[in-house]
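Lay summary. Proteins are chains of building blocks that fold into shapes, and those shapes determine what they do. In this project we predict the shape from the chain. Here is one chain we studied, written as its sequence of building blocks.
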Amino acid sequence: MFINLKFKTIQIVLAVLYFIIIPLSVDAFSISPPILEFEANPGETVRTNIRVQNTSDANKIYAFTIQKFISKGGLGQQEFLPPTETDGLPEWLYFDRPLLELEPGESYDLPIVIRVPMDAKSGGHFVAVLFAEQAELSRGAVGIVPRTGTLIFLTVRGNVLKSFEIESFLSSPVSPSHLPIDFSANLSNTGNVHIRPEGRLRITNMFGNTVASYPLNPSGARILPASRRSFQIAWENKDTLKKGYFSELREEFRNFGFGKYSAELTIKVGTIERTVVHELWIWPWRIIVFSGVLLVAVLSIFVMRKRMIS
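And here is the predicted shape, written in a compact code that computers can read:
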């Protein structure tokens, strides 16, 4: 009895080590494009394709699911809803096959048809078409490995509202002594369609001269309805030096700034434009202290030499 138990224990340990040392391989495949955007009228049919390519060296079968998604957090993350939530856009999508089998290196443009019903609600509708390799797992069970896919942004024409608010526009650190300075703009989408804000941050000194200018959204990020997004802009490079008085003093010389600055952020969404201004002061106190000490030292030497001569 003890021998059998010990033998089974060894078998279990060896099996665990096998799957740790030799994990299941995940061959690559690619999906394009990553994002599709459409506008359609109620009752209209939209046709498009998603290209799937098998980049592995073996025949693969791919399965795909349709899932609605919402915004999660303020940095553009998506939260995928369960596949059982099929009301709206998931019910309007049609494919020509349930599975896709590709040979090594083969690609296929998968046709997708979107049939917008006559009573479709105007505004934004969002789904993800997610693909995965259908893999044979142990004991003949069928499982799905990690997925990737295409996000679909559909706007149904009608009572469409594009609107946004600038919730906050701040800088960090609050009392800087030198650059870099990080600006954070938090926007909320108060309309019923996704928006892709454009804009520019312009920084001027106390004399009104422009010292820096940056685009707000160079990557073209989108904000879903009833959600928020934070946009980060760095003025100059990040500090990579070690902390300490003399390191910070060196940074003040390298990224010198002095006095009052105005950061003007202009944001556009369609025909809507809003501007917000944030003022800040840069006090390079280490340079001021260092210069004061140096000045005192020079004056002391000058006075001592004068007394020695006299």
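What the prediction tells us: Confidence is low (pLDDT under 50) at residues 1-27, 136-141.
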